[in-house]
Specification:
It is built from three helices and two strands; from the N terminus they run αβαβα. It has 111 residues and is α+β, with helices and mostly antiparallel strands. It has a domain of 72 residues. A two-stranded antiparallel sheet has the order 1-2. It binds zinc ion (2 copies).
Length: 111
Amino acid sequence: MQNRSRGAPAGYQGAEMVARSAGRKGRRHRAAKQDLHKTSTRCWLCGHDGAYELDHDPPRKMLLALRLDPDDARYHKPAHGTSCPCPTCGKRCNQVKGDRPAPTPRMVHEW
Ligand SMILES: [Zn+2]
Ligand SMILES: [Zn+2]
């Protein structure tokens, strides 16, 4: 009567380790996303269809700096991202553009 074949600890999926506190207000953000989908799913970065990520233009950081509301639909643009790479050019436009972290020098990782 043994039903367990795997020893993986339950609850450890690993995939979603993203901090919830990333500053995006969950519910409003999701609603905004849906609104955006109704308006357009054409990526504002590469111009192709099938973009389901919500991008900000101007960038969120700038909106916050200007004390504007990043949840205002006026600043929302559809873009491709990790969850929906562009079916046409394969880019993850949102991340490609991203916040552009300083180019990382090649580092030797010790494994
Ligand atoms: Zn795109
Ligand atoms: Zn594209």
